[in-house]
Amino acid sequence: MRDVAATDRALERTAEAISSNVGGVFDDLEKIAATVSAVATQAQDAPRRSAYAFLKRDLATFINRHSALIVGAGIAYAPGSLPEAPLWLEWWRGAQTGGEPRWVTHDLNPESLNYYDYTTREWFATTSAKGSPVAVGPYVDIGGINVNIITLCVPAPTPQGTHVLGCDLTLAKLEGVFLRALQLQDPTVVLLGPTGRVIASNNARIASGTLFVEEDLKQVDRSVDVSSMSPARLPWRLVTLRA
C-alpha cells in the first residue's frame, strides 16, 4: 500500500527545493534590475549603452553563480530608450568549461529575414505589461540552443520605459533539482506549468515539454503549489497521478 504521508512529505520537500532554487535566481536577477533602474533614474538624459557597461560583469557573475540551473542571461531594452538604436538586446550564454560567458548575436534589423523582434516575444511583452517577475515556458528556444527552456524575467522600470532582464533555464537542469528532491518512483509525480506543459516528471512516459493530456488530468490525485507565497511569480504545481 502506498505511504500517503511519505508522498506528502516528498511533495513538500520537492516544492521547497524548486521554490528555493528558482527563487534564488529571481532574487539575484531583481538586484541587477534595481541597479539598472537606479542608473536610468539618476541620469539627466536618456542613458547611452555605456552607462550600462557594468551589466557584462554583473550578468557574467550571475550566470556563473547559478550555472547549476541557467544557461544564459541578458537584458532587452525598452523600445526607443537608447539614443544609439531603437531596439537593443544583450544576451550572454554560459561557457561549457565554466569560463567567461559568450555574447549571443541577435539580428535586430527589421528589414532582415532573420529579424528577432523581442518586443513581441511573450517573455518581454508579458513582463513589460505586468511590471512584475514572470516565468515563461517551457518552450523550444529555436535559434538559440534549440532545447526546451523556461525564461525567468524581471522588469527594470526607468523613465525611458521598462527594460526586461531575463535568464534561460533548461528543463534538463531543473529536472535534476526535481528528481534529487523527490526521491520517489511511485506514484507518478509531475511538475506542471500554468498552461499545462510538463516541466519535469518521474515517469518516462510523461516527457518534459509535452502538454499534459486530458486523460492524465483525470488521474490527478494530489496537487501542491510550488510557491504558495509567490504564486504569480512561480505559478507551477506538483501533481500526483493515481495508479
From TrEMBL:
<protein>
    <recommendedName>
        <fullName>Cache domain-containing protein</fullName>
    </recommendedName>
</protein>
